[in-house]
Amino acid sequence: MIDPAYGDRNNRISSPDLVEERSINLDIALRVKAYLDTAYELEVILACNHDTVLGGDEETDLVKCLEIIEEAKPSCFISIACNESDDHAMHGPEIKYSAFDGRSRQLANKIYALLPAANGVKGNGIHGDNNIPLLEDVKYPACLVKVGYLSNEQEEKLLRQPEFQDRTAWAIAQGAAVYLGAHIRASEVPAVSADETRECPYCHRAM
To answer: Which long-range contacts (CB under 8 A, 24 or more apart) does 65-69 make?
Structure first.
């Protein structure tokens, strides 16, 4: 299960150029799904809707997202988001996982082994974090992939580039596939467009 984080929540990140995080998260999530869909062994589901919260507030949104996850009972759950910092020099991907679950650490390790090298950038490691409600409450192997810093002007430009998004998505998908013992077939990935999927008000099931 892939989660393009934040939808239309008020706590999403906007870059100095007013590029909203949700659009980057969704574009990368769709590319991850496209890669994983080439693995015949897998069924891939997007966890949440594109541009509207699942609930009236953040707490209700979390509850509804957890209900969707519990219904699907995924072999693993990956949430995709951007990062930010008051230190505008900060850059690079990092992954957070539930420190309560060794399987989540394994999933994070498999993805991180490929993620920084995919774009030739310095990574910031993997970190157990029990203060993220979604990771704390999910009963399945789960991690939050922070793909880069929108607060860094140079990285913000990279995060908007389709080539950068595609390499990032490949690393996430390949790491997840290795964790699941599946095989993605990169040459079979079709072009993906977030615009096509925004016609659907919610994205609770595979497209």
So the answer is: 65/3, 65/134, 66/134, 66/137, 66/138, 68/204, 69/1, 69/138, 69/140
